[in-house]
Amino acid sequence: MDAQLIARWQFGITTVYHFFFVPITISLSMLVAVLQTIWLKTKNDRYLRLTKFYGNLFLINFALGVVTGIVQEFQFGMNWSEYSRFVGDIFGAPLALEALIAFFMESTFVGLWIFGWGRLPKKVHLATIYLTAIATLLSAVFILAANSWMQNPVGATYNPQTHRAELTDFGAVLTNPVLKATLMHQLSACFVVGGALIAAVAFFHLSRVAHGRHTTAITDAGEVEETRTWRWATKFGAWVLIVAGVFTVISADYQGKVMTDVQPMKMASAEGAFDSTADFSLLTIGKLDGSQEIFAIKVPGLLGYLGTGKWGEPIKGINELKDVDLNEYSYHRRDGSQTSLQSSYQQVLQRHVAASGIRLQPNIPVTYWTFRIMITLGMLAILAGLVMLVWIAKGRNPAHMKWLSLVLVLVPIAPLLANSFGWIFTEMGRQPWIVAGVLPSTEGVSAGVSAGSVLTSLIIYTLVYGVLAVVEVGLLWKQIHKGLPDVEPIDTDHHQDEDAPLSFAY
Amino acid sequence: MFPILEMSVLEVAHSALTPVWFILIAVLWVGFFFLEGFDFGVAMLLPFLAKDETDKRVMVNTIGPTWDANEVWLITAGGAMFAAFPGWYATLFSGLYLPLLLVLFGLIIRGVSFEYRSKHPSSQWRNTFDWMATIGSLLPSLVLGVGFANFVRGVELGPHQTINGPAPLVTTSFWGLFTPFALVGGLLFVILFCAHGAGFVSLKTTGRMHYRAGRFATRLGWLAAALMAVWAVMFNTMYAPADATAHLLTWILGILAVLLVVGATLFSRSEKDGRAFLLNGLAIAVMMIAMFIKMWGNIGFRPVGVDFDMWIASSSPYTLKIMTISAGVMVPIVLAYQAWSYWVFRKRISRESIPQGAH
Asked: What is the pLDDT of residues B288-336, one digit of tens each?
């Protein structure tokens, strides 16, 4: 096996794994902050118990997000050194700013939040979780700016003296249309996961407490409070899920148009559209080598609307897009334009494309199916949110059934996997480019790193990540089953003496 | 002292911000070792300093609220190298692949252990995570010590061809990194961080933990001082900077580092925890500065048959300008809130202050 192939698998595996924790961290930090705010406003301990319960789930998840994120930042230099050398002048800046602005803030304030119960004044303590949540959002802005630049390399030019891409306009990098679209789509998708997690866990507990009894039929005071708490949390989570779901769909529409503009090949391969068409594919079976279509069911005209905003407007197919003279090759966006980096690097690239025989299309079955799995799982999540709301309407409560618990496990997992498949689509759809229309992925890999080294690290990451996944799932499971924690009144006005027990300790 | 003035006259394309960023990278590494040095040390000493579960919890909680932010200094150092010196980041991280993998492995198993150890009452569960914290702190300390000794010595580079022209490639093999000086460097980092960690535990606790940690800090301190002396002599005799002024400086800083560790140890012995902690931290900073002086210009490499230095590795003037403005605004803010978080958790921890039956 060659080092490049293993390095690609490693990037895919470690990034998808890291991204299991990201949507939950981003959404749950903010939603826990909202719960804590409601507690401070209402002074009702119900919301404090929810804050602590979901806060615990957030922290278990956060720990793994942090440690797997370290690998991400170092991996560019370790496995993709020639990519890093070529683009570092542009790509490095958002990564450094992410660490400097977002990571410091996130790590400092999450520590203050965890240990600050009872030690910080209540409002200051609330501010620490908001600052943690805002830091995760800032982190998303910077890392998506970096990724969006790889999809649409704006604000840069090729410097033949230094043989690398150099930044010319940082503002253009931060206002990249791909960034705007992706940021909206990604943040909404994060909150779909967070809402689904809160609702599904609450619904599960509701079924255990209420056993299908109507809310008015429950008389035990403790059970009444539990039922009310979980009913509230189910509705809260489900509404977050549904509203975020709607935003995800709306932003997807915008994102599809941007993608069609700057990466026409990606849109064509998402559709498995071999020839120019305006029809949206419901099902396309093509040859596995991605060369042509065998059978298809289509919605006439819809793709034109999704890609360009005009019903029936055809977009170019895969075969037309790649049918170019390799000796004259240059990358163009849908309107024929190029970014300044794409045009200034064109000559170096032409020499190379012709010589190396790069295949100018992504892996079509992968892009076609990941795109559809993403949409299906996302839609199912929104549907689950609606079903839960209807199920508990008018004081009704679910009964505790084995199959229900199993389905509930899938409710947050479905949108989480939709996130994964969305990213697999985005990154696989960019191929064969590591920077669209500029640097082929094959040229980004580290030159001096042997296949054995990359394989060693892949095996180590896989083993460690595998064990940690078991630990994490076990811990989440245990915390979820424990249910609402008991809370004691939190007293910060009282000055604690030296040996008073800490309100929180590891 | 440094050839910065001649450089800017001779080669106008060079950005005046390149040296600024070299210094900022050094500052980030100094900050990282000053802060994470002691929490590496605390975790490394867990199995040795603690006598029972409550002792362990006292120790873990001295660093509990702040270790994560300390580690971000490393992430930021890495990110800043990527942004300000892409050539340095690319050459170093791919060239020292396996050592870096060991650092990452350590940071992963360590990073989950503080949070996860408290989530289950079984002592086997907790012991497992304590050992993960210990090993996960030992590995990065050792490997980074070996690594920085190699930067002082100069990691050898050769040329290789890429689609974008010739680029430098590390030619020193993995086993070639383990020179006597590198082993002294690795051991020094481990012992110095343990002394710093013991001093920190002593500073942050009361009762028997406080006294035990103080005694550990004293004993480890003498060992660290001896290692620092060996390190300073080897540095200045075997791998001295070529420039005479720089060499004088590295001698002065080397001796100063030894004196600071001796001073810290004397303070530890007389239970002046605060001063001991400060001097140990300064010793780490001075030691790092000496190494970065040696790395000035060559950024820790010895290129053979290929041109490579900090000017070639550097980003464009425009990128450096953006990064400089961002760092100028953000670094003081970061320092302010990090200092505030240390102030919030300034209280000493005792065995009695550990809540029983929590979790």
From this structure: 999 999 999 999 999 999 999 999 999 999 999 999 999 999 999 999 9
A293/A159 Cα distance (integer angstroms): 42
Closest CA to B31 of B103, B86, B99, B80: B80
Position B286 in a domain:
yes
| Mean pLDDT value across chain B | 91
Among A274-283, B43-52, B141-150, B228-237, which stretch is predicted with the lowest mean pLDDT? Answer: A274-283
- Cα–Cα distances (Å) from A497 to A19, A115, A494, A502, in that order, read 43, 17, 9, 10
Residues of chain A with pLDDT under 50: none
Residue A194's contacts (CB-CB under 8 Å, 6 or more residues apart) are A23, A24, A26, A27, A28, A30, A31, A237, A240, A244
d(CA B202, CA B211): 7
Say whether B319 and A478 touch across the interface (CB within 8 A).
Answer: no
Neighbour-count burial of A475, counting CB atoms closer than 10 A to its CB (0-12 exposed, 13-18 middle, 19+ buried): buried
- Are A135 and A127 in contact by the 8 Å Cβ rule? The answer is no
Select the residue from B89, B135, B172 to test the A interface by mutation, using most A Cβ atoms within 10 A: B89
Tell me B349's DSSP state. B
pLDDT tens digits, one per residue of A95-142:
999 999 999 999 999 999 999 998 999 999 999 999 999 999 999 999
Which two structure tokens, joined as six digits, stand for B306? 């290929």
* Chain B CA closest to residue A443: B163
Pairs across A and B, CB distance < 8 A:
271
Residue B7 within a domain: no
Beta bridge partners of B170: B157
Per-residue pLDDT at A288: 66
Round to whole Å and give the CA distance between B354 and A501.
5
Q: Which structural domain range is residue B337 located in?
A: 13-154+172-345
In a domain, B314, yes or no: yes
**Does residue B8 fall inside a structural domain?**
no
Per CB-CB distance under 8 Å, the chain A contacts of B101 are 78, 453, 456-457, 460
* C-alpha triplet A10, A12, A18: angle, nearest 5°: 95
pLDDT tens for each residue of B71-83: 999 999 999 999 9
Q: Which of A4, A70, A100 is the best substitution to test chain B (most B C-beta atoms within 10 A)?
A: A100
| CATH number where B310 lies | 1.20.1630.10
User: Could you report the predicted ipTM of this complex, rounded to two decimals?
Assistant: 0.91
Token pair belonging to A208:
């255990």
Q: Which two tokens stand for residue A214?
A: 């109507």
Joined together, the tokens standing for residue A318 give 């895969």
In this structure, are residues A315 and A281 in contact, taking their beta carbons and an 8 Å threshold? Answer: no
Cα(A352)–Cα(A149) distance, rounded to whole angstroms? 22
- Rounded Cα distance, B207 and A133, in Å: 38
Asked whether B320 and B84 are in contact (CB, 8 A), the reply is yes
Chain A residues closer than 8 Å to B94 by CB: 77-79, 81, 446-449
Partner-chain residue, chosen from B76, B111, B169, that has the shortest CB–CB distance to A99: B76
Q: For residues A142 and A161, what is the distance between their CA atoms, to the nearest angstrom?
A: 29
Number of domain units in chain B: 1
Identify the DSSP state of A98. I
